[in-house]
Amino acid sequence: MYLYDEYDKSVVRQRIADFRDATERRLSGVLSEEEFKLVRQMNGVYLQLHAYMLRVAIPYGSLNSRQLHRLAHIARVYDKGYGHFTTRQNIQFNWPQLQQMPDILEELAGVDMHAIQTSGNVIRNITADHFAGATADEVDDPRPIAELIRQWSTLHPEFSFLPRKFKIAVTASAKDRTAVKFHDIGLVLHEDQTSGRGFKVYVGGGLGRTPFVGHKIREFVPEAQLLAYIEAILRTYNELGRRDNAFKARIKILVHEMGADAFGELVEQEFSRIQPMVDDLPTKELERIRQRFITPDFADLSDTDLGLERAKAEDPEFKRWVSRNCSTHKIPGYAIVGVSLKDHGAIPGDITAEAMDQLAELGKLYSHDEIRATHEQNLVLPHVKKRDLYVVWRGLQAAGLATTNLGQASDIISCPGLDYCVLANARSIPIAQAIAQRFADRKREDLVGALKIRISGCINACGHHHAGHIGILGVDRKGEEMYQLSLGGSGAEDAAISQSTGRGFDADGIVDAVDTVVGIYLDHRHEGENFLEAYRRIGPQPFKEALYGTA
Amino acid sequence: MSNLKPQPSQIVTANEIGTGAVVFMTAEGTWTFDVTAACLSETAAESEAMLALAQTSNNRSEVELVCLIAAQRLPDGRPWPVHPREVIRALGPTVRHDLGYQADIKNTSRTLTDVSL
Ligand code: SF4
């Protein structure tokens, strides 16, 4: 965890004081709707279908138990007893009142949290691998880098009025859990024997109306020069990005229109211009930040734990959970525990205040006081001793958080859709619920294996439907909710954009269509082949025939 | 955002500033959470007059995002929104019947599924 220093704290306090003042003036009618809108958006406050919504940043997805308890407290006292984890490692509260908003922000500030840069045309919350600092496959913990970028970009005057919102993701692992190639800038830390440590840089990725897989414009930017390089990208974008049309204002459009090579060329020019003026500040800053990250004091353990093996042998339920929800930790004797917020038929990403409290306690007792939020709307206990896994599992069961389905068909990403979102065309949650219920039979779910289903309620694609093995997009056809199906996307290192199958379906039809598609996969798959691999081998045709007939 | 031009058969809706809650304008120019108590226009001119009334300075510190939406007349004479989005706004999330306006009315006779479009 990163510890705030006095400067961080005073920035946040000042923002809250300003916001309190603006809120009071809005409530008394001094500020107009338009005047206030900008202020509230800068503080993460949206007006949704039924109420205000507050989006709270969880930088690089890391929380400690105090913070999660505080989120639970906010859910209970200021909201309706629950929170919603989003697809960008944020949490949203769906029912806070405007007059209480400054108090909620105070509550958050008390545990070093805020809602800055969760809205508006700025550099948004920096996301990072949710296994950072725990996974065996990373070069180093990417979160200090994410924090460095966060501090550098927070309230950065030059980049506070970008043509559009700007999203950055960082990973340090070849296995991509952050969808780096679907970000405005995606950074992959890697190590090179001759040049040392640096970043692969992808630009111009994104979902939404015009999805693109990001282009690699640099194989290696030395760590010390990273901020200068990002600055060069942002300057180039800030100057050339379109401001006349919100649909064309994202960096992906610019990169696409001028070509990644030409864009990269301009970035290089700007970079060589500013690079000599920038000292090695990033290196010193990084050192300072690294020191403010508390690294867990890991115990010296043997990698095999006999108690764990015995429990797995005795309890097949537990064994299944371990094999499905736990991942390899870099330290012997530890495991990374995935916590599913996707119980079959539940609302993806929603969690009650009680469950938050229970999970916070488990995190405090058994995971070095750390809890992580994933962009797949699940949570993680990153540092659990193998010998504690059984107890943790029982604790999760008691909290209703032991669903064994991570990475499977019912682990669906779904945006809030028309049940909450003011921009939506169609509902997404009920579709996710109905599909998940079709896989409530675990034999079938296990038979199908790894499958990523993603649902968005409009073309903004918050539900990442283009990055789903199976993607669903809600549309409005003359006042009727309809759903388009697309197949073959991936948000991982083999990033791909899913392709539409053709004509859309109504709400019942889309659930059946997913069943049909899964059936075709099961019929055609080779031994050990997952859905995406099979789709890539056989192509869309067999699926289309099953869905629409051969005519 | 539904931002319709004045037409026959419309009601005025907005969001309450303090809570963001969805409200509808009554024939008296006051605001109600109950969509069936809203004033339903017969003509485009009536819609226009309703919108003007809703936008008076008095209302501006109470509600925001004032706009007209299409509504139909139920057999019992009361108005009901046409579009599913507006029905959801009037009642609350369809996936949480314990939340939103639908949670506050004990004997709601209508839900989203009742409304055939
Ligand atoms: S994809 Fe559309 S409907 Fe879903 S949350 Fe984003 S803006 Fe709202």
Question: Short description, anyone?
Answer:
Chain A is of the alpha+beta class. Chain A contains 18 helices and 20 strands. Chain A is globular.
Describe the protein's architecture and organization.
In chain A, helix 1 runs antiparallel to helix 2, helix 3 packs antiparallel against helix 12 (353-366) and helix 6 (226-240) crosses helix 8. Helix content of chain A is 38%, strand content 17%. Chain A has 4 domains: 6-109, Sulfite Reductase Hemoprotein, domain 2; 142-291, Sulfite Reductase Hemoprotein, domain 1 (2-Layer Sandwich); 306-398, Sulfite Reductase Hemoprotein, domain 2 (Alpha-Beta Complex), CATH 3.90.480; 413-548, 2-Layer Sandwich (Sulfite Reductase Hemoprotein, domain 1). The mean pLDDT of chain A is 92. In chain A, a hairpin with a 4-residue loop joins strand 4 and strand 5 (90-93). Chain A is α+β, with helices and mostly antiparallel strands. Chain A has helices spanning 6-27, 33-42, 65-78, 101-109, 143-153, 226-240, 251-258, 260-274, 281-292, 306-314, 316-325, 353-366, 389-398, 429-438, 442-448, 507-524, 531-538, 541-548, and strands at 45-47, 52-57, 62-63, 82-85, 90-93, 127-128, 168-171, 185-192, 196-203, 215-222, 326-328, 334-339, 350-352, 371-373, 379-385, 413-414, 453-456, 470-477, 480-487, 499-500. Chain B is α+β, with helices and mostly antiparallel strands and 117 residues long. Chain B has one domain. Chain B has 4 helices and 5 strands. Helices cover 23% and strands 23% of the residues of chain B. Classes of the chains: A alpha+beta (551), B alpha+beta (117). The A-B interface holds A 26-29, 32-33, 47-52, 80, 95, 97-99, 347, 418-420, 422, 424, 427, 429-430, 433, 476, 479-481 and B 1, 15, 17-22, 60-61, 64-65, 82-85, 88-89, 92-96, 99-100, 117. Iron/sulfur cluster (SF4) is lined by residues 415-417, 421, 423-424, 456-458, 460-463 of chain A.
